[in-house]
Amino acid sequence: MNPVQSLLNQDNYIIPVVVHVLYNNDDQNISNDRIYSQIETLNNDYNALNADLENVPSNFINVVGNVGLTFCLVQSDLNGNPFSGINRVFTNVNSFQGFSDDMKDSDQGGVDAWDTNNYLNIWVCNLSGNTLGFATMPGSVDQELDGVVIDYEYFGVNLNATNPYNLGRTATHEVGHFFNLEHTFYGSCNDLDGCDDTPEISSPTYGCPDITQESCQSINMTMNYMDYANDACMYMFTICQAEIMIDALLTLRPNLATNSGCDVSLSDLKQSNIEIYPNPVSDLLFIKTQNQMVLFFDIYGRNVLSKYFYNNSSVDVSSLRAGTYFVSINNQLYQFIKY
Ligand SMILES: [Zn+2]
Question: CB neighbours of 21 closer than 8 A, spacing ≥ 6?
């Protein structure tokens, strides 16, 4: 079994996301591509498909966790009409105070949340000061304030940016809080983050430290997403963290796991005569079906590939970017992961 396969979580949950882009000028009105790159980063990081996972040092490789969450932009609005999942709203407010609630309130120049029981709301706006983003843990605030806020400069992958938070890991970190994760340095050497597989660490990590750095008599897991290292220097959750997040989803945010806001209703492969393998796949994907047009969609519902299958043939998917894809065969949807 290859390492990706062994990490692949059998229970994958689809989380419907609405991104509210609050902008006061063109810079703040970030592109669709930036938003897509953020969703892709979340999907890689939450399925242990991030390319830099290979940097995990040998002493931590056995505790790498695959969360098994797939994020998708909602495909219909609150009235059921087709929707991009991206809610762009002009605001007169040039910058919002970090940790304030104003961006979530239309009376304060913000935009009101969509039903927070059924959607992960992400507000992207200009935050004043040094706040990269912040999130609410389950049950910590009134429903209408529940969600994740990210400064527009640190949302998505932006390789032109000179700051070290340009790979979308701020959202990976904040979504971790949203699903009940504490910082790994919480409680310092008393290790109060609720996970034994994240070693005690005396204080937050900044920059891109030596991976053999120690504190509290153990080697620091500086590359954990729930620390503060640069985006390029954080690349793992642990098994315990993955369990906490799935538990939070199923017990504290149960509607998120069952909402079909992405219009992705998956057919059960076991119930059909169709076989799709290997899954996850890197190059040749085999599909057992005959005389069928097979359509491939990315998580935004875009048709990325089409092929007519005469008889149990294969299709080369090596050109697709890593992530989750859907295959439509005879009006049934199936899912596979490209790595
Ligand atoms: Zn944090």
Answer: 28, 29, 30, 35, 86, 87, 88, 89, 124, 125, 152
SS (H, E, C) 114-126: CCCCCCEEEEEEC
pLDDT in tens, the chain (339 residues): 233 333 334 467 889 999 999 999 999 999 999 998 999 899 889 989 898 999 999 999 999 999 989 888 887 777 777 788 999 999 999 999 998 999 999 999 999 999 999 999 999 999 999 999 999 999 999 999 999 999 999 999 999 999 999 999 999 999 999 999 999 999 999 989 999 999 999 999 999 999 999 999 999 999 999 999 999 999 999 999 999 999 999 999 999 987 666 654 556 555 667 788 888 899 999 998 887 788 888 876 677 888 888 777 889 999 998 888 888 887 677 888 888
Distance 268 CA to ligand 1 centre (A): 37
Catalytic residue among 174, 182, 200, 214: 174
Where in the sequence is the domain holding 114, given as residue range(s)?
A: 3-258
**329 is a domain residue:** yes
Ligand 1 midpoint to CA 8 (Å): 26
What is the distance in A from the centroid of ligand 1 to the CA of 135? 8
Which of 277, 290, 288, 289 lies closest to 317 in space, CA to CA? 277
Which of these three, 226, 258, 290, is where a domain ends? 258
> What separation in Å is there between the alpha carbon of 130 and the centre of ligand 1?
13
Q: Encoding tokens for residue 106?
A: 């239309």
155, 275: one domain = no
CA of residue 215 to ligand 1 center, whole Å: 20
Q: Which of 258, 283, 299 is the last residue of a domain?
A: 258
Q: Is 164 found in the same domain as 21? A: yes
243 is catalytic: no
The CATH number of residue 273's host domain is 2.60.40.3080
Q: How many CB atoms lie within 10 A of CB 82?
A: 9
